[in-house]
Fold these 3 entries.
Entry 1:
Amino acid sequence: MVIVMVLIILMVAITLSTILGDAWISTSALYRHAELRERNYLAARSVVEMAMELLRSDDNDYDGFGDFWALGKQTLPFDGRELTLEITDEDRRFPLNGLASASEEDNRKLRSALVRFLERAGTPPQLALDSLQDWMDPDTLRRPQGAEQGDYGQALVKNAPLDSLEELHYLRGWDNPPNLPPPRGYEKDPLASLGGGGQMEIEEFRRKLGVPATSPSVSPSLAPQANTSKWSDWMSVWSGGRINANTAPGEVLLALDEGMNEAIVQEILSQREQSPLKSEQDLRNIAGMNADLAFRLGSLVGFKSSFFRIRVAVDQMPGRMQLDVVVQREGGSLKVVEWTRL
């Protein structure tokens, strides 16, 4: 009987030992995963901070593709990891919240520009814009094709500006992505006739980031994109109020005014490839641009950007991650307005 009890105790002990051993291995693996992910986060955060230094050092009165920050997607070796960095300005896109905050005249111009763009994108403009403005404005008056409280079932209409483009998924008219190919690269617009975009040499860019010159070179271009774009390629909730004529895609420029045509847009793209536009006078000097058109564009376009998106991705197992950071630049200072860890 004693021997049987001893055997039972030994079997229980062995079983517990196995269970605890497996639990320890699982816990150890989980801890290791968390540790590596945290190291990747710290590396990504360091690159974000260096990108912010690049933006601070850019003290021109204009922003264009020749600036330090506008080199497109770069793959950088950093702290034994391979990170991908991309800096884009939000002011190249349509400022959707401008529909809620702009003056009545500026609101009308922005809405008209969006109507032209949405028609080209294959989206019913009246439905999309009415539902968007009803979503943002504080009143309960329903626009002709809009939607107010009760039109979305139990969901409440926000009655405030957008915090994220994800909110468009809730709204009528924004169900499908735009029927347009995305911009094929940040540093070179697909409609531009001249190449180069005034880029800095890659070595200079890497030197600015503190990457050793002996590190392997990387591709300066964006990865291949799908044929269908996303609303985030064309729209933004962050904006200084005006669309940057030096960085806006050709499709955005074309929609800004009924007097714009592809020939004028082509001239703008070609001109800014050689030298960025710095003032309304530069705009007036564009071939085909008359004084009335330049004046009308004056309330919609600018030549400098206020908001920038810094995207850093770490593609290293098991702690892959991405940081998506939006910063506002005022003078020589930067303020983080959105920080997302994916």
Entry 2:
Amino acid sequence: MKYLLFFTFIACASQPSQYSVVEKPEHFVSPGGSIDAAFYIQEDSFMGTLALKPGAVVAKHSHDGSGEYLYFTKGQGELTIGDEVIKVKDNMAVFIPRGVEHSYVNTGKKEAFAIQVYSPRGPEKRFKKWKDEL
């Protein structure tokens, strides 16, 4: 319930005119299989999940047109935002502003899991390219 309230709050910046219900998300798996991205809401904002196996790496990148919200429900790792390295813990929420470089590595022995929101949507398109790379 606590993260439902969190994402309700952050998604209110731009709201679609109709509600959305997704029971079976579309999945995109990275080359090598270390990351599974699931797409839930794709309206004005995007909401999805990331399952990151031990050793999974999200290379340094930025989103010029969107802010990114991450809520790590479980897992460990190192999230680098700009020049700062943040130790990821269970139930940690993070906001990454537009245009700020960031990366992640799962340094734990278990899978990490995060809820991800882009506002406005757009950066999630990179996950769709994984189908072409497999």
Entry 3:
Amino acid sequence: MNSNLEIPKPPPLLSRKGWTVCWLALLVIGGLVPAMNLLAPVDSWWHLSDYAVALIAKIMCYAMAALALDLIWGYTGILSLGHGLFFALGGYVMGMYLMRQIGRDGNYKSDLPDFMVFLDWKTLPWHWTFSGSFVATLILIVLVPAGVAWVFGFFAFRSRIKGVYFSIITQALTFAAMLLFFRNETGFGGNNGFTDFKRILGMPLATPGMRMALFVLTGLTLLGFYLMARWLMRSKFGRVLQAIRDAETRVMFSGYNPLPYKLTIWTLSAVMCGVAGALYVPQVGIINPSEMSTAASIEMVVWAAVGGRASLIGPILGAFLVNGAKSWLTVVAPEFWLYFLGALFIGVTLFLPTGVVGLLKRLRGEGRS
């Protein structure tokens, strides 16, 4: 045996410049923004209004969902048109806990949520059993999207459903779930969903301090998901996923079974969406079945496509660009937003297949990484 052979080292997680950017992001999200909001006067440029804090935090939740979608679409070649389902499931689990926190402060002064009292319910449904526990809620935020994704993915991937057929099935699954959640007898608030949240862990939600705390938590979670995804895609697991995307048949001939790889990344992607939805609900103040609509899932695809799929930072950038434009355009000219969104997706597909990140790389002369 030749003792001079060297085992190649895995590529570093981040370059020195990348770590610098991450530390700066951590400093800004975890320290600078909260400190400036506490120290700067309300009318100062350095003070973020409650609206700005909520808007940025909401977009960060969307960025998590776009990043989750990129793991299965950009790196595994599986286009999902139903990730809004997992986002909503995480949101509903958190919403159930927040509704239980209202307690006797609600309109009907009952331990049951207001909509249940209005519908003359006498007891909580079985699926609300653990909704009063914050620890159980955190566990269910992970387990519920993971369980639904695993069961669906196992049968779909084992049957070798792929391409447009898989996309259609995910869309049908999400639409069926939306119709189920619209029904009042299911105990999810019908078309109104859950709203009017007042407390979390016994502390009031509608305070600047709590909004900032949720903002920081959301930002740190997004940064953590990004680093996890980057580590995962640079590992052997990630390289196999990319091989499945490019030539699944060759991967099978090489002795790898694609099923556990696809099922694992599919389930992980669903969990990331569920966590994003759980962070979204207390900051926005509402969750209803519209989060499972076809349009909501397609918008996630647009975010990833605009930013640049298979780049990790691209979907995050795309979520901020598209939702920033949406916030501005729905105020200035709300009737043109959907036309703009459709034109944006078509334009990116035709002229910017690698998205904004790919365009920036070409302008910098780096080419495709």
